[in-house]
Amino acid sequence: MQSKKQRAQAKIQAWQGRLTCPLCHEALNPDLQCSNRHQFNLAKQGYINLAPNHQEKHYTADLFQARQVVMGENQLYGQALSQAYQSIAAQLPQSPIFLADLGTGEGSHLLDFLTQFGDKEVHGLGLDLAKAGIQSAAKQSSQALWAVADLAQIPLADKTLDLALTILSPSNYQEVKRVLKAGAPFIKIIPGPSYLIELRRLVLDQEDVAQDPSQSRQRFQDSFPEMESFHYHDQVAMTPDLMAELIQMTPLMWHASDQERQAALELTEMTIDLEILIGYKA
């Protein structure tokens, strides 16, 4: 049986010619070294660290463990990713397909998305600057290649990806366009007006409870004029245990008082309100 590191090495081979050095942007060879002799590490846990000097303070192992429970095991976003896939399936090449989840966290969304492709040959790459998230992703699955990386300078060659995905995470649109092939889709999921509104009512001032996604949508359209969008809305039943995990994972509750946390634990349902934006590289 192959180790996680050996399985990751095979995936690095599949991405040969696509991965680049974050320091000089030259291609990385299968040993993760560039022509300028910058060398990077493949950890025994099966992930690459392309940002070895970054220290992440806010996103902890406990947060990503909670995210895995909420997003992976309990599928809080339900059929949102399936709907997104159905919208772009006809535009994808037959195979192989190279896709990256930019801001993958602990990888639950990417792993869910990869199940949509059936028997197609798909090479998934999960990138995030939070090392704890990438460690958690590598621990739970070797189905994708995982890398700690700065998304302001995506460590991929130009015109590398058949598809990019970002879920509730910031994007550098110029970088995303650089790494997409011509005509390739970019799926960006942002919060809708009522996303987690039950929690927002507990911890925010009244004028801040409802979110307005119009500016985010406009910024996306400015970068991807050829785009489409649709709305995903669901009411999800919540148990006290699942609420505790959601409280642990969401930045919305980082500064909540004990009283607000207790009130949140008593909630029995949660609104999932998402805007799914799909843009195509010109």
State the CATH topology: Rossmann fold
Supply the number of structural domains.
Answer: 1
How many separate helices? 11
**C-alpha-based Rg, rounded:** 19 Å
Mean pLDDT: 96
User: What's the end-to-end separation, in Å?
Assistant: 44 Å
Enumerate the strands of the largest sheet in spatial order, edge to edge or round the barrel: 1-2-5-4-3-6-7-9-8
- Which stretches are low in confidence, meaning pLDDT under 50 for 5 or more residues running? none
Helix content: 25-40%
How would you name the CATH homologous superfamily? Vaccinia Virus protein VP39
CATH architecture title: 3-Layer(aba) Sandwich
Major sheet: size, sense and barrel closure?
Answer: 9 strands, mixed
Structural class, judged by helices and strands?
A: alpha/beta
Strand fraction equals 15-25%
3D structure, described in words:
The protein is α/β, with parallel strands linked by helices and 282 residues long. The chain has a single domain (49-280), classed as Rossmann fold, CATH 3.40.50.150. Helix content is 34%, strand content 20%. It is built from eleven helices and nine strands. It has helices at residues 4-14, 61-73, 80-88, 108-114, 131-140, 173-179, 197-203, 206-209, 214-223, 240-249, 258-265, and strands at residues 41-42, 47-49, 97-102, 122-128, 145-148, 163-167, 185-191, 227-237, 269-280. It has a nine-stranded mixed sheet, with helices on both faces. Helix 2 runs parallel beside helix 4 (108-114) and helix 2 (61-73) crosses helix 10. The longest helix is centred in the first third of the chain and has 13 residues, at 61-73. The protein is globular. It starts with a helix and ends with a strand. 39% of the residues are buried.
